[in-house]
Design goal:
The complex is a heterodimer of chains A (532) and B (158).
Chain A lengths: L1 H15 L2 H19 L5 H8 L8 H26 L10 H10 L3 H34 L4 H17 L5 H15 L2 E2 L6 E2 L13 H17 L22 H23 L5 H15 L12 H16 L1 H6 L6 H12 L8 H4 L1 H22 L3 H7 L4 H20 L3 H18 L5 H23 L6 H4 L1 H22 L11 H4 L9 H10 L5
Antiparallel strand pairs in A: 1-2
Helix pairs in contact in A: 1-16, 2-4, 2-16, 3-4, 3-9, 3-14, 3-18, 4-5, 4-6, 4-14, 4-16, 5-6, 5-12, 6-10, 6-12, 6-16, 7-8, 7-20, 7-22, 8-20, 9-18, 9-19, 9-20, 10-11, 10-12, 11-12, 14-20, 18-19
Chain B lengths: L1 H26 L15 H23 L16 H21 L1 H13 L7 H22 L13
Helix pairs in contact in B: 1-2, 3-4, 4-5
């Protein structure tokens, strides 16, 4: 078992070290780190813009690069949170609490330095987990019939929509909207046109890239335009030598890093709980364990290291269900899965055996990418800090161009560019009505496979719905679904709001709120509400 | 005022979901429902539509139970940016129009230009400069490096 995994890893390194793949991995982490730093650009929008450019590439290179953007952005996001107190990306919102006070005390460099190294620790653990857990999961999953796949997908969709941000009912609504959007176009079995309104351009369905860029590009720009306050860079003068931590700092960080790793890897095992929840749980844990919990919020290094480590460990762990089962845990993973599907690769348990170069190449590239990120972040910190000062008024118009050309390049067709406008308006309306559109992408990517397997399961069982509870493995997934819904209703009835884990929406929108005092107070109040 | 707005948000949210759900549920049967054993292409959309309608009713209904002061935001943000929103949405349309008529250079330039005038700090000089810079690097990257099949400069009316 272990030997097999190590042999796979060895093979993976030979794939990842091919000059071309190595280059794409580097491009990916570089771009990722860049957008992570830039306030107002998310990894989701970036991956969707880059997606059409990967069509001409080999699948391995494409996926290495897109994955690189994703974890690269996690490194960059920390810089933004610690130096500017701007939670540009949700997983780093909690890092602001102690990171920014450290910056004010002139210890921002130390916080960054330790973050980079603890992130590497967290990520390494996540990768190790992936190496050893994925083959086991695959062994189990290969026995699955359509009924099991179907209920597993239902569980994934349900967890992805109810455990993420905002109200669970609204999250489920978004998943269903995604599933419906996924059904647009020709039906897989009969070729019947569904919801195409007579437009031939919709025969192949809604374009994944247009959907992602509409929801996470245009709708986000509409939220942020003219809302961003001037960025305060008076503290962000960090040079390389400021990053060297003292011995005491390192000593204080070791155990928080280990705890963060554990929290993160646990969170990545529960479907639907991504890096954001991991970071909040980690912060709350650290506060509970600490001998001086009252000092949190005033610049405790533990409060920076622990959530950052957990974020990274969970980001890498999130790849496990995506790559081994073909079931993405969040919108970014759904997008990566979509990229694989576009390349003609069927995701699912057979992926590792059919395309070992992709799976093991990806695993190996994680390590290479993380080492590259440490190298990029430590000596070049000055450049990243400079990038923080790029004003939004230059950023979003340029991004609009990338959105347009990206969508155009997907099919060399202007129709999709119009599609992105319509989806953008829809996405903005949803945001204003209190919906979080991320689960739409989950539903959209899984939709066709869900329907296919549901039909097949029904055909095998001769139209008997009981098949989902009669087959034992499927019954377990159904039971988990029921428990999940039950727990949500229980939490609701007990009086606390559904989104116990997460900070108020304001804190998650870049620039919406920049009050130094008010925001961390609100955040810490929420972080302590996390149940144990 | 605040009171009624807070009720409205979830009302509209639920209403929108009901509308989408009803649309799917009513149109689904047109595509052959089939039986549970042999499901037709209309089955899944209809079922999802019904589910979405029910959830829409739940959301709209929950607006009644929301206590006063709990809803934190209105439907429109505090400072609506109609002009900027218009610019952002018009930018891809400008890309389509000028891209179709004139090719990649005018398409890119107008796309960035239209988006950029939406910012409240925009000046003519900064907008033109930004558009020119993005056009230069954009065409270099997408036409010469990535070879996106779109003419750089042309002249024909659709």
């Amino acid at each position: 078992m272990i030997e097999q995994a190590l042999a796979g890893l060895w093979y993976g390194f030979s794939v990842a070290f091919e000059p071309q793949n190595l280059m794409w991995c580097f491009v990916g982490v570089l771009v990722g780190n860049m957008v992570g730093v830039l306030p107002g650009m998310g990894p989701l929008a970036t991956i969707s813009i880059l997606l059409p450019l990967t069509f001409g590439m080999k699948p391995v290179g494409a996926i290495l690069m897109l994955a690189g953007v994703m974890y690269g952005a996690q490194y960059g996001g920390a810089i933004c949170s610690i130096l500017l107190n701007l939670p540009c990306h949700p997983p780093h919102a909690v890092t602001c609490l102690d990171g920014f006070p450290m910056t004010k005390q002139g210890r921002g460099g130390v916080a960054l330095g330790l973050t980079v190294f603890s992130s590497f620790v967290g990520a390494s653990w996540g990768i190790t987990e992936m190496i050893f857990l994925s083959p086991i999961l695959v062994k189990v999953a290969l026995e699955f019939g359509p009924a099991e796949i179907c209920s597993l997908m239902a569980l994934g969709l349900l967890a992805g929509s109810t455990l993420a941000r905002g109200s669970p009912v609204k999250g489920v609504c978004m998943t269903i909207v995604g599933l419906l959007l996924g059904s647009v176009g020709s039906d897989l079995e009969t070729g019947q046109q569904r919801f195409t309104f007579g437009l031939a351009e919709l025969d192949d369905g809604v374009e994944l890239i247009a959907l992602a860029l509409g929801l996470f590009g245009i709708a986000e720009f509409m939220t942020s335009v003219n809302q961003t306050a001037a960025i305060n860079t008076q503290y962000s003068n960090v040079r390389l030598r400021d990053m060297r931590p003292t011995k005491a700092d390192v000593k204080r960080s070791i155990f928080p890093a280990i705890r963060g790793t554990l929290v993160g890897s646990l969170c990545s095992l529960i479907p639907g709980t991504g890096p954001t929840i991991a970071s909040f749980v980690a912060y709350a844990t650290e506060k509970k364990v600490s001998k001086t919990p009252e000092k949190f919020g005033t610049g405790m290094i533990e409060g920076v290291v622990c959530p950052e480590t957990s974020t990274h460990s969970s980001v890498q762990g999130d790849f496990i269900p995506t790559m081994s089962l073909g079931i993405p845990g969040d919108a970014v993973m759904a997008l990566l899965l979509g990229a694989l599907i576009i390349q003609g690769i069927v995701p699912g348990p057979q992926l590792i055996s059919q395309h070992p170069d992709i799976f093991w190449g990806l695993v190996a590239s994680f390590w290479i990418g993380n080492i590259l990120l440490v190298l990029l972040n430590v000596p070049l910190i000055g450049i990243w800090v400079k990038m923080l000062t790029i004003p939004y008024k230059y950023l979003y118009p340029s991004a609009m161009f990338f959105v347009c050309i990206g969508v155009y390049a997907a099919n060399n067709d202007f129709f999709q560019v119009g599609e992105v406008v319509v989806i953008g308006i829809f996405g903005y309306v949803l945001l204003r009505l209190g919906f979080h559109p991320a689960p739409i992408l989950l539903g959209f990517v899984l939709g066709p496979r869900f329907e296919e397997n549901f039909r097949r399961a029904m055909l095998i069982s001769r139209g008997d719905l009981a098949t989902f509870v009669e087959r034992p493995i499927s019954a377990v997934f159904v039971a988990l679904c029921v428990i999940l819904i039950g727990a949500q209703i229980y939490v609701r009835l007990k009086g606390s709001k559904g989104d116990v884990y997460l900070p108020p929406e304001k804190a998650l929108h870049p620039g919406a709120e920049q009050e130094t005092a008010a925001q961390p107070a609100a955040l810490s109040a929420d972080a302590t509400r996390v149940p144990h | 005022m605040k009171h009624s707005l807070l009720y409205k948000r979830d009302f509209y949210a639920g209403g929108l979901m009901m509308l989408l759900g009803l649309f799917a549920a009513l149109n689904g049967p047109r595509y052959t429902l089939g039986t549970l054993m042999h499901m037709g292409p209309g089955f899944m959309p209809t079922a999802l539509g019904v589910l979405l309608t029910v959830l829409g009713i739940v959301i709209a209904g929950s607006a009644f139970t929301t206590k006063e002061g709990e809803g934190e935001e209105g439907i429109l943000p505090e400072h609506p940016q109609w002009f900027a929103w218009g610019c952002i949405l018009a930018s891809p349309l400008a890309f389509i129009l000028f891209g179709k008529v004139g090719g990649m250079i005018p398409g890119t330039f107008m796309c960035v230009f239209v988006a950029a005038i939406g910012d409240r700090d925009a000046t003519w000089r900064s907008v033109v400069a930004l558009s020119a810079v993005v056009t230069f690097f954009g065409v270099a990257l997408f036409h010469y490096l990535l070879k996106i099949p779109m003419p750089v400069l042309k002249w024909d009316f659709l």
